[in-house]
Specification:
Length: about 375
């Protein structure tokens, strides 16, 4: 006579044949001795398995054995979909819904590319399990979840095909904010260059400045996702220069193209004073021994009038410093003791000792 506790059977199609798995829990009389039997499984065609089940049922009804069927846990993919795409360094959560008619759910084991990662406990007739994995390397990986009962009877297995894409470096984007990309100045002048920049990750940091591809300075006036920074330079020599601002972020990542200006520096034209005979008229007639007061008028665009050198017949006679500003007059009074014709000139100069091209002249 058999003393039994449970009888559970499961029939499934496997490789062209039917597989009958019968889990029996109980004590059975075999060869004159009592034996504990846990399970019986056969693989055959449909008719053989049906015959086996019928015989088993008849045996149970006649008291030879009593058995009961035992089913494995069932599982469904909760999320994400089977095919998953993530970025390098990103994390992804996986979830399954598990059920078992007998209410003895036990565990879920998680694997990545066949490597065991963790085991989570589940319970009852239905439960949901979660697992989060960080994918550090680009490529493809297989994530698997294997379900078990409390007695470690394996059930359905759920898998995901994960594609990990290589992370693209996020670099700042610069542009010439001011002045215009083409700049023309005079030698000795300075230009204040302003570079604009933006960064998707909000990690702007600074700019390296170059003149004709030679490093000149580094500034750290950039931050956040959008900002501007500036740098000033004086150009003392005539010529054409290329100024570049190479923007970088907090990871020292640079853009392939820098903000760029072309600066044309023109030679400075000397500003010289202009002069003329203010009084008397340019032709003067006097008697020997008389004196004449000559007044020279002068102007200067830069407002730097300074003085005048006085000549008689091209021979230097005196220097006066009565001129200043942008427009002025100065005078000088010589005495002519001997008869004759004389040429008087006033050569005006500025504070840089630049002289006019033509002197004021009297005869």
């Amino acid at each position: 006579m058999a003393c039994f506790d449970e009888f559970r059977t499961r029939v499934q199609f496997l490789s062209g044949a039917l597989l009958a798995m019968v889990n029996i829990k109980g004590d059975f009389l075999m060869g004159g001795h009592t034996k504990e039997v846990q399970s019986i499984s056969i693989t055959s065609n449909r008719s053989s398995i049906i015959s086996f089940i019928v015989i088993l049922i008849l045996s149970l009804t006649t008291g030879i054995a009593v058995v009961s069927a035992n089913e494995s846990p069932e599982a469904d993919r909760n999320y994400p979909d089977f095919s998953v795409t993530v970025g390098e360094g990103e994390s992804q959560e996986f979830s399954i819904d598990v059920s078992h008619d007998d209410g003895d759910l036990g565990y879920v084991e998680w694997y990545v590319d066949g490597e065991f990662e963790t085991s989570n406990s589940i319970s009852g007739s239905s439960d949901t399990d979660y697992y989060t994995h960080t994918f550090d390397e680009p490529g493809n990986e297989l994530v698997e979840a294997v379900t078990y009962t409390e007695d470690w009877e394996s059930g359905e297995q759920i898998s995901w095909d994960v594609t990990i894409e290589e992370e693209e470096d996020t670099v700042p984007e610069p542009w010439p904010d001011s002045p215009d990309e083409e700049v023309t100045i005079t030698e000795g002048e300075s230009v204040n260059f302003v570079v604009g920049a933006e960064h998707y990750d909000g990690e702007l940091h600074g700019a390296e400045w170059y003149v004709d591809h030679s490093p000149e300075d580094v500034t750290y006036g950039l931050s956040g996702s959008w900002d501007t920074d500036d740098w000033s330079r004086t150009f003392n020599d005539p010529g054409t220069y290329t100024v570049e601002a190479d923007v970088f972020d907090s990871d020292d990542d640079y853009n392939d193209e820098a903000a760029e200006w072309t600066v044309t520096v023109e030679e400075e034209e000397e500003v010289r004073p202009e002069s003329w005979p203010d009084s008397p008229d340019e032709a003067v007639t006097i008697t020997e021994g008389e004196s004449v007061n000559f007044v020279v008028g002068a102007e200067h665009d830069d407002g730097e009038l300074h003085g005048a050198e006085w000549y008689v017949d091209h021979s230097p006679e005196d220097v006066t410093y009565g001129l200043s500003g942008s427009w002025d007059t100065d005078d000088w009074s010589p005495t002519f003791d001997d008869p004759g014709t004389y040429t008087v000139e006033a050569d005006v100069f500025d504070s840089d000792d630049d002289y006019n091209d033509e002197a004021a002249e009297w005869t």
